[in-house]
Design brief:
Length: 235
């Protein structure tokens, strides 16, 4: 069984209609899994379901073999999940360093070494450590958001569009950092709008359409699939 195994996820928001239909998402240890698909396909909703922010009508989420379907998001953080949401993923009026400290909220041990690791991974975060996070560029904010999520030392890092609104060069740099994180054994589950580039670094890719799994394969195979290329990757 995969390190993260989310199966048959079906459900929606509150009493509203189902957004997810029988959705399956899984990630192995140290693997990068990428979710792509059109706007409104349910990519963010799928991530929220894995993180426990949605009441699933059906399905199960297992982490490292343990069923965590009934756990709250905070309990899932204790189990080793880190989540960077698509929007509002930093505290703009707090300093960069305070953002990282907030990320460590569940820890009662010395988290200073983890802050140093984040500074090493993202030198720009170190340079801006005393500035308000709201004053940073889009790419720098995303680095703070990823750094904040790393503060709990997650085993599974979930990123919803980490490269949204950043330049191609910053996107490449962020992907390189994400690869570095995965090489330390952390599993990555990532939603990406830059589908082609993201699938290039993906061990596994999911194409979602209308809350369902449309295509699942290695990143390489999806990039080579003429139907996937034509419909989702712009030819
Ligand atoms: N908080 C919410 N309450 C009710 N419906 C929602 C909520 N958030 C999203 N939805 C609905 O769920 C569906 C899927 O939205 P979702 O945000 O998961 O798509 P997405 O694939 O992440 O899109 P995008 O690429 O634009 O980020 C949409 O129809 C959307 O209107
Ligand atoms: Mg989304």
């Amino acid at each position: 069984m995969s390190f993260l195994s989310a199966t048959n996820m079906t459900g929606g928001y509150g009493a509203g209609p189902d957004i997810l239909h029988d959705l399956e998402l899984s990630v192995d240890k140290g693997e990068i899994a990428v979710i792509v698909g059109p706007n409104g396909a349910g990519k963010s909703t799928g991530m929220k379901a894995v993180f426990g922010m949605l009441n699933l009508r059906e399905g199960a989420v297992k982490l490292d073999g343990t069923d965590i379907t009934g756990l709250s998001p905070q309990e899932r953080v204790h189990k080793g999940m880190g989540f960077v949401p698509q929007v509002r993923n930093i505290f703009p009026t707090m300093s960069v360093r305070e953002n990282l400290e907030m990320g460590a909220f569940i820890r009662d041990d010395d988290f200073e070494p983890t802050i140093e690791q984040v500074y090493e991974l993202f030198p720009a975060v170190y340079e801006k450590r005393n500035q308000n996070a709201g004053e940073l560029s889009g790419g720098q904010r995303q680095q703070v958001a990823v750094g904040r999520a790393l503060m709990t030392q997650p085993k599974l890092l979930m990123l919803d569009e980490p490269t949204a609104g950043v330049s191609p060069i910053v996107m490449d740099e962020l992907f390189d950092r994400i690869i570095e994180v995965a090489k330390t054994g952390i599993s990555i589950l990532m939603v990406e709008q830059n589908a082609r580039q993201a699938l290039e670094i993906a061990d596994k890719g999911y194409v979602l359409v209308q809350g369902r799994n449309a295509y699942t394969d290695t990143g390489e195979a999806l990039l080579a699939d003429p139907e996937v290329r034509r419909t989702f990757l712009g030819g």
